[in-house]
UniProtKB/TrEMBL annotation, chains A, B:
Its EC number is 1.6.5.9. Residues 14-332 form the FAD/NAD(P)-binding domain. It comes from Rufibacter tibetensis. GO terms for molecular function: NADH dehydrogenase (quinone) (non-electrogenic) activity. InterPro entries: FAD/NAD-bd_sf (IPR036188), FAD/NAD-binding_dom (IPR023753), NDH-2 (IPR045024), NDH2-like_C (IPR054585). Residues 356-412 form the External alternative NADH-ubiquinone oxidoreductase-like C-terminal domain. The chain crosses the membrane at residues 383-400. Belongs to the NADH dehydrogenase family. Keywords: FAD, Flavoprotein, Membrane, NAD, Oxidoreductase, Transit peptide, Transmembrane, Transmembrane helix. This is NADH:ubiquinone reductase (non-electrogenic). Gene3D superfamilies: 3.50.50.100. It catalyses: a quinone + NADH + H(+) = a quinol + NAD(+).
Amino acid sequence: MAKYARIKNTGKPKVVIIGGGFAGLELAKSLKKADVQVILIDKQNYHTFQPLMYQVATAAIEADSIIHPFRKVFDKQENFFFRLAEVQHIDTAQKLVETSIGLIRYDYLVIATGATTNYFGDKLMEENAIAMKSVEDAINLRNTILSNFENALQLDDEEQMNSLMDYVIVGGGPTGVELAGALSELRKHVFPKDYPELDFQSMDIHLIQSGGELLKGMSKEASVKSLQFLEEMGVKVWLNRRVKSYDGYTVTLDNGETLITRTLIWAAGVTGNPIDGLKPESILKGNRVQVDVYNRVVGYENVFAIGDIAAMVTTENPQGHPMLAQPALQQGTLLGKNLVRLFSGEPMQPFVYKDQGSMATIGKNKAVADLKLFNREIKSQGFFAWLIWMFIHLISLVSFRDRLVVMLNWGWNYFTYNSGNRLIVGHKQENIPITETITHKTVI
Amino acid sequence: MAKYARIKNTGKPKVVIIGGGFAGLELAKSLKKADVQVILIDKQNYHTFQPLMYQVATAAIEADSIIHPFRKVFDKQENFFFRLAEVQHIDTAQKLVETSIGLIRYDYLVIATGATTNYFGDKLMEENAIAMKSVEDAINLRNTILSNFENALQLDDEEQMNSLMDYVIVGGGPTGVELAGALSELRKHVFPKDYPELDFQSMDIHLIQSGGELLKGMSKEASVKSLQFLEEMGVKVWLNRRVKSYDGYTVTLDNGETLITRTLIWAAGVTGNPIDGLKPESILKGNRVQVDVYNRVVGYENVFAIGDIAAMVTTENPQGHPMLAQPALQQGTLLGKNLVRLFSGEPMQPFVYKDQGSMATIGKNKAVADLKLFNREIKSQGFFAWLIWMFIHLISLVSFRDRLVVMLNWGWNYFTYNSGNRLIVGHKQENIPITETITHKTVI
């Protein structure tokens, strides 16, 4: 018989939240004064501020600045309980969550498991590509990039050398665009100083986008300008192209052309992080969970879903809301208030998404922003957008201390282009051995 | 036939340095203007500022602040070449270093491989203990401590729980003393906030020292005061005790008493990091390499050794100099100057160790320092020593940026006791499974 996880019983209704991303974190905070027991389950002991992950991957800031231990965030919230565990199954009949540390009882369950990288079933891609969904992925990428250059120093075969120095980024959303821009700045200002023996003229950065424009979902102006910025910075952008296969060395595109790289970064799609035990009819395409306007999972009384995993299908949003930080934060906050209303017999308020705009930064003084302020749309590209981007990201970081450290790093980088986090510590991607001789015919 | 590593041939005499610790780094810097080719080989791409490693292990500062990429340190030094490689063997007849990336030719070879943890041949200890010699060890310890508490929450058996909450540190030198002090402060100010469900009254910190005093090598005052500080802070200090064995759970002392812990930190001794290929007669006890007063390895013309690995045996120092940062730094600097003298036919200067004193910090406002300033000995314990300790460590950090970040962390911790680096990222120690039932009779 399965055992129960040990959690102090406070006698209050138990709100169990699975996942401490933006949505789960906001919900837990929003329940601060509620007369409940909040139990947050996550497989990491920290929250990740995902929008700055690409800066960790490109050695601009420390990983520690964008991840924050849950126990510290909530050390003053008495109704909060954290458990480091993996969820295996939920049993909605018994109101139980089955986890790696035992069974956890709930009165209200909130699924906030977010999204995971979508390889669209391509196993070979999953094996060989580097993802960008966790801070460990970002550290992996940083270590891989730096090791590539160390290894490239030892080669004289041109193709082999290019395989280590060239990068292919798949996906022209914010992550892909920001990574491509950051790599391009490193190629110009940092790598040549670190590796004077290598010729960075021959380092190519490819960005592959399946659609006809970058930053789909943003304004036409933002798409056009981000493409222009990247091309000015020497990034090779391939629009209307898909990757057919990648074996860890050769990237084959849908038109048959090939690229050679040992480092393909997959930022091309996400899918809901599935959870076992819900009725199949509540799971929509893309592994998202269908919820009503109160974020209640369709078909359940006391099970909710918020953030990327939740698809609130309405006539306005037939696909649900975009899988972004903003809807997650707003749903988390509202659900906290709605649960309090529910306990006191008041009617819950339906969720209305307030899109405050989006932005992406491509390089120093170069960003694109579509803002919605006071019911006005402000579109900006360039220096002003870049200032706003920095301001918004700084104030969004979880702690004041992190803000200081990141600000310090950014200030430093602005004037010196040289933050000094180019360290190979921990895991890196192990691809096919570098000594192996591979000959290919078609190379772009 | 073995291949050569690819390194640009500048036509200058090649000074190959193995190891980028304090000694190797200083030597390379000291050769900045010399008409030579400096080739530094290290198995990491960064220099580690070891004196602050215990602060990484106790989540006070980020790992990135105390490690620094060699390529960045030397990005303005044109005669400097770095290679990330492991050295397998040196062939002094052919003047070749055999490495994981191929053969490297030298005209002058400098061994600066430092020291490694000495388990005195105890394989079981090596398997089960956590060392404190690298930043990866420190991260491992941080992750292990935090995971221990997460796991302890799930136990009700008292002995099992204690095995996760108690710590045994072996070795009463600076590392052991500083770690014990830092853990004790976390126990008082931080852990109870993070884990309100655990009772930290029952968390024991044991420090085991084989001799009759702590901080051997420092003044009597420092030894006595550090013991007093630690005991006031609730650390259980065991003097004149040795560890006989440790199986990952039970620590058996030389008098037959036992302690239970899953986390034993081994800071009890170091031994020279051996290098293969030197004449056996040049290797002394403790794996150190015997050098003359010019740091030249006895029996060789063009092979030198500096830092912890070098034993300069004189009548004053029958055991060689202490294995500390100061002799390493001073030998590195002097050898750089001496090599220049050698090339220009001038006589080399003999090494004279200038002991500037030593210090250790036990807690907030609590440090011990024996300083030698202007030929006067200044002994201080408490607040003033602690200020000096901070000042010296801050100015010794490699880069200005690191100094800022560390200062920020320290300032933050001073007022809040709460730096927020308590993150479980990357590797942690995997000991015997926690579910396993073990019963022991004698527990102190």
